[in-house]
Amino acid sequence: MTDYDFYANAYLGSSIEPEEFPAYALRAAEQLGRYRRIYTVAVPEDMPDGEDRAICAMAEALHGFDLIANGEGGPVQSASIGSVSVSYGGGAQTMDLSPKGQERELYRCACRYLDICRGVR
Protein backbone atom coordinates (compact mmCIF):
# COMPACT_ATOMS: atom_id res chain seq x y z
CA MET A 1 0.00 0.00 0.00
CA THR A 2 1.08 3.57 -0.60
CA ASP A 3 2.98 5.00 2.36
CA TYR A 4 3.53 8.48 3.77
CA ASP A 5 7.08 8.59 2.44
CA PHE A 6 5.79 8.27 -1.13
CA TYR A 7 3.03 10.80 -0.42
CA ALA A 8 5.43 13.41 0.98
CA ASN A 9 8.51 12.84 -1.20
CA ALA A 10 7.29 11.57 -4.59
CA TYR A 11 3.73 12.89 -4.80
CA LEU A 12 4.84 16.00 -2.87
CA GLY A 13 1.68 16.07 -0.79
CA SER A 14 1.46 18.15 2.36
CA SER A 15 -2.22 18.31 3.27
CA ILE A 16 -2.42 15.14 5.35
CA GLU A 17 -0.49 14.64 8.59
CA PRO A 18 1.70 11.49 8.82
CA GLU A 19 -0.45 9.89 11.53
CA GLU A 20 -3.65 10.44 9.52
CA PHE A 21 -2.32 9.24 6.17
CA PRO A 22 -2.70 5.44 6.60
CA ALA A 23 -6.46 5.71 7.22
CA TYR A 24 -7.02 7.98 4.22
CA ALA A 25 -4.78 5.84 2.01
CA LEU A 26 -6.71 2.73 3.04
CA ARG A 27 -10.05 4.37 2.18
CA ALA A 28 -8.63 5.50 -1.17
CA ALA A 29 -7.24 2.02 -1.90
CA GLU A 30 -10.63 0.50 -1.10
CA GLN A 31 -12.26 2.91 -3.56
CA LEU A 32 -9.68 1.99 -6.20
CA GLY A 33 -10.46 -1.67 -5.53
CA ARG A 34 -14.11 -0.91 -6.20
CA TYR A 35 -13.16 0.73 -9.51
CA ARG A 36 -11.18 -2.39 -10.43
CA ARG A 37 -14.26 -4.53 -9.80
CA ILE A 38 -16.57 -2.47 -12.02
CA TYR A 39 -14.21 -0.91 -14.61
CA THR A 40 -11.10 -1.80 -16.54
CA VAL A 41 -8.27 0.01 -14.74
CA ALA A 42 -4.81 0.22 -16.28
CA VAL A 43 -1.62 1.96 -15.21
CA PRO A 44 -0.25 4.04 -18.11
CA GLU A 45 3.17 2.91 -19.34
CA ASP A 46 4.61 6.40 -18.89
CA MET A 47 3.48 6.51 -15.24
CA PRO A 48 4.54 3.31 -13.46
CA ASP A 49 3.68 4.82 -10.06
CA GLY A 50 0.23 5.88 -11.29
CA GLU A 51 -1.64 3.71 -8.80
CA ASP A 52 0.24 5.20 -5.85
CA ARG A 53 -0.36 8.71 -7.19
CA ALA A 54 -4.07 7.99 -7.66
CA ILE A 55 -4.31 6.77 -4.06
CA CYS A 56 -2.57 9.94 -2.85
CA ALA A 57 -4.90 12.17 -4.87
CA MET A 58 -7.99 10.32 -3.62
CA ALA A 59 -6.67 10.39 -0.03
CA GLU A 60 -6.29 14.17 -0.24
CA ALA A 61 -9.84 14.49 -1.61
CA LEU A 62 -11.21 12.33 1.22
CA HIS A 63 -9.24 14.40 3.74
CA GLY A 64 -10.68 17.58 2.23
CA PHE A 65 -14.24 16.22 2.43
CA ASP A 66 -13.73 15.40 6.11
CA LEU A 67 -12.33 18.86 6.85
CA ILE A 68 -15.29 20.54 5.18
CA ALA A 69 -17.76 18.26 6.96
CA ASN A 70 -16.13 19.18 10.30
CA GLY A 71 -16.15 22.91 9.51
CA GLU A 72 -12.36 23.03 9.41
CA GLY A 73 -11.88 23.43 5.68
CA GLY A 74 -13.38 24.79 2.52
CA PRO A 75 -13.16 28.25 1.06
CA VAL A 76 -11.90 30.96 3.39
CA GLN A 77 -14.80 33.24 4.30
CA SER A 78 -12.79 35.81 6.23
CA ALA A 79 -9.18 36.46 7.16
CA SER A 80 -7.16 38.81 9.35
CA ILE A 81 -3.47 39.47 9.25
CA GLY A 82 -2.89 41.29 12.55
CA SER A 83 -3.39 38.41 14.95
CA VAL A 84 -3.71 35.79 12.22
CA SER A 85 -7.36 34.84 12.14
CA VAL A 86 -9.16 32.82 9.48
CA SER A 87 -12.70 31.49 9.10
CA TYR A 88 -13.74 28.62 6.90
CA GLY A 89 -17.19 27.90 5.66
CA GLY A 90 -19.47 27.90 2.70
CA GLY A 91 -17.81 24.80 1.29
CA ALA A 92 -21.12 23.01 1.02
CA GLN A 93 -22.43 25.86 -1.11
CA THR A 94 -19.54 25.82 -3.59
CA MET A 95 -18.71 22.12 -3.62
CA ASP A 96 -20.97 19.14 -4.14
CA LEU A 97 -20.53 17.16 -0.93
CA SER A 98 -23.29 14.69 -1.69
CA PRO A 99 -22.22 11.05 -1.97
CA LYS A 100 -22.57 11.34 -5.74
CA GLY A 101 -20.47 14.52 -5.82
CA GLN A 102 -17.78 12.91 -3.71
CA GLU A 103 -17.81 9.86 -5.96
CA ARG A 104 -17.30 12.06 -9.02
CA GLU A 105 -14.35 13.82 -7.38
CA LEU A 106 -12.69 10.56 -6.35
CA TYR A 107 -13.14 9.18 -9.88
CA ARG A 108 -11.66 12.40 -11.32
CA CYS A 109 -8.66 12.09 -8.98
CA ALA A 110 -8.06 8.46 -9.98
CA CYS A 111 -8.39 9.26 -13.69
CA ARG A 112 -5.58 11.82 -13.46
CA TYR A 113 -3.11 8.96 -13.00
CA LEU A 114 -4.88 5.82 -14.26
CA ASP A 115 -6.73 4.81 -17.41
CA ILE A 116 -10.22 3.83 -16.28
CA CYS A 117 -12.88 2.74 -18.74
CA ARG A 118 -15.87 0.48 -19.07
CA GLY A 119 -15.36 -2.76 -20.94
CA VAL A 120 -12.17 -4.44 -22.07
CA ARG A 121 -9.12 -2.55 -23.35
Task: Describe the protein.
- The chain is α+β, with helices and mostly antiparallel strands and 121 residues long.
- It has five helices and four strands.
- The strands form two sheets. It has a two-stranded antiparallel ribbon.
- The longest helix has 20 residues, at 50-69.
- The model has no long low-confidence stretch (mean pLDDT 86).
What are the SSEs and their pairings?
Layout: H1 4-9, H2 21-38, E1 40-42, H3 50-69, E2 76-80, E3 85-88, H4 91-94, H5 99-111, E4 115-117
Antiparallel strand pairs: 1-4, 2-3
Helix pairs in contact: 2-3, 3-5
Summarize the structure.
The chain is an alpha+beta fold and 121 residues long. 50% of the residues lie in helices and 12% in strands.
Which consecutive residue ranges, at least 5 long each, have pLDDT under 50?
none
Oligomer, anyone? single chain
Strand content: 5-15%
Characterize the largest beta sheet: strand count, sense, and whether it forms a barrel: 2 strands, antiparallel
Strand order of the largest sheet: 1-4
Please give the count of helices.
Answer: 5
Helical proportion? 40-55%
- Apparent shape: globular
The overall strand count is 4
Question: What structural keywords apply?
Answer:
single chain; 121 residues; alpha+beta; two-stranded antiparallel sheet; 5 helices; globular
